[in-house]
Amino acid sequence: MLQRSSKRPEQRLSLGRRLVRDRVLLLFALPGTALIVAFHYVPLLGNIIAFKDYQPFLGIGGSDWSGWDNFSVIFNGDPAFLRALKNTLILTSLQSIFVFPAPILLALLLNSLFSERIKRIAQSILYLPHFMSWVIVVALFQQMLGGSGLLNNYLRSHDLSTVNIIGNSELFHVLLTSQIIWKDTGWATILFLAALSQIDSQLYEAASVDGATRMRQLWHVTLPGLRGIIILLFILRLGDSLTVGFEQIILQQQAVGRDISEVLDTYVYNNGVLGGAWGVAAAVGLVKGIVGVVLVLTANKVAHIFGEQGVYQR
Amino acid sequence: MSRRIVQGVPMPGWPMRMFKGLVLLVFCAVVIIPFVGVISTSLAPNKQINESGGLVLLPKSINFRAYESLFAGGVVTRALFVSIFVTVVGTLLSLTVSCLLAYALARPGFSAGRPILLVVLFSMLFSPGIIPLYLTVKGVGLLDSIWALIVPTMISAFNVVVLRAFFMNLPNEITESARIDGAGELMTFSYIVLPLSKAVLSVIGLFYAVAYWNAFFSALLYLNDSKLWPLQLVLRTYVINDTQLGSAELGTELLPPQASIQMAILVVSIVPILIVYPFLQRHFAKGVLTGAVKG
């Protein structure tokens, strides 16, 4: 009883009355909430067509249930599906190994500069590509590295043999990875730089009094200071690990063919939206989404076990 | 010789500094050169483009013929109007809707605040998938309409969270005093809160604007009618897929070389971003960090 009476008076009003009192705020929140529900939660429910023999003219309600039939490409290991899965996993590993650490290294470099002005100029330049669309990035890469691009023109004018980088299926995965590095490394340094600025400079002083060289300071002070944010970002990346860049790949798929460029997202688009195999495509998309969520939750659990904060609190 | 000490750390010797400078210079050059090449080629004279076989890094003289033919009223002009419309209208709508939602969620006593906040936060964890999203947009009747480029992506949960964090950090006394002076929620919001939030509004506005300007996915997915194409789809068709632009598409008889037309299309899609970029850059770190820390 005591606890109840200690609550603020407004909370003793019934829910209905509180909602009436808050009608203006409800009205404020309505359009945004409605949009999120309509274009996030409704499509989430729309995943139900993974269990249906979806016919566009019958609609979702009118189409027959088909049980797990649509999932057979996954369970029976349909070659086209396996190919997409394999390419996805290759790209994910390449990205984890090369794309993920790149901004950390660049942030360490920027942080170790003593001239604020040079640092600021470099940042302005390095952030820029993040704001370009994939269409622009792909076009720029073509102009630089393509058959009649800057690099080959230079090689030709100096009577050297030309190299074919764009449209070469053997180099395709490397090309995709380097495009991501070019586009987003600079931008991703923002978070690491912020974390670096949070590190207490007294730690460095103490370390250097103890005779630590710059390398040892990096190892014992700087990197531990970055640990939290590195783990956080890695967990978030895991959730997207089966998403390897739809726009980027669909733009360049024609040049190298599907064998090497098909990933789960392009598989879903090509078979569903273009091919009309709605149910199968939705099934693949659904499994992909579930795997992503499971990966995030698991990784977060593991982070908690190791005493890190993770994405959300326990 | 003793080394200079900065923040308790001895300054590295000159070979190390040279090395760092060099690495940084290479990084920056790799970013800058493509842009310079594209802009130069779009302005360079025909003869020089033909001689170099493609890109030009330093134009010998400058002409604007490629741009004149792009703006003569053909495909590119139309796409430019579509992109501008989508960016301006979309950004205004997005900002309005997001700010209203974020403000409501930031109010301490709002009874429905918690459930709505959960709806927003959970949407960040799951993404719905391409097929159901396409079918929803189709079901709402937006397919092959310019609004398909705006409505489905109008609100970003992440941006709402950033805005909410910013509104919550505003000193409570200011809104309280407005309340005492008799201002309602709408008055407080538009005359007190919004004017105090210019910095965060410009960053979030930029994020939305860039997303609309760059939208390729929604255009590819939802638009079949090439009359509605935004610049990004035109870029893909005529630059990446190398489809020839003839006088029928350009609406002019004067045809500069394809290379310079292509580069001019690229420039047209890059320049608006280059123009707003310097003005908003100083707010970046702040805007991004509020989101990361409070999210």
Q: What does the largest sheet of chain B look like?
A: 2 strands, antiparallel
Give the mean pLDDT of chain A.
87
Main interface: chain pair and counts: A-B, 97 and 96 residues
Q: Which overall shape of chain B is indicated by the principal axes computed on the Cα atoms?
A: globular
SSE series of chain A: HHHEHEHHHHHHHHHHHHH
Fold-level CATH name of chain A? MetI-like fold
Order of strands across the biggest sheet of chain B? Answer: 1-2
Describe this structure in words.
The complex is a heterodimer of chains A (314) and B (295). By secondary structure, chain A is mainly α. Chain A has one domain (69-306): MetI-like fold, CATH 1.10.3720.10. Helix content of chain A is 71%, strand content 1%. Chain A has helices spanning 2-6, 15-21, 23-46, 59-62, 72-75, 79-99, 102-111, 116-127, 134-145, 150-157, 172-198, 201-209, 214-239, 246-256, 258-261, 264-274, 278-305; strands at residues 52-53, 64-65. In chain A, helix 7 (102-111) crosses helix 11, helix 11 packs across helix 13 (214-239) and helix 13 runs antiparallel to helix 17. The model of chain A is unreliable at 1-6 (pLDDT under 50). By secondary structure, chain B is mainly α. Chain B has two domains: 13-62, no CATH class; 66-294, MetI-like fold, CATH 1.10.3720. Helix content of chain B is 69%, strand content 1%. Chain B contains 15 helices and two strands. Chain B has a two-stranded antiparallel sheet. In chain B, strand 1 (5-6) and strand 2 form a beta hairpin. In chain B, helix 1 crosses helix 14 (258-280), helix 10 runs antiparallel to helix 14 and helix 12 packs across helix 14. Chain B starts with a strand and ends with a helix. Chains A and B meet through helix 2, helix 3, helix 7, helix 8 and helix 9 of A and strand 2, helix 1, helix 4, helix 5 and helix 6 of B. Chain B: One of its GO terms (biological process) is transmembrane transport. Chain B: This is Carbohydrate ABC transporter membrane protein 2 (CUT1 family).
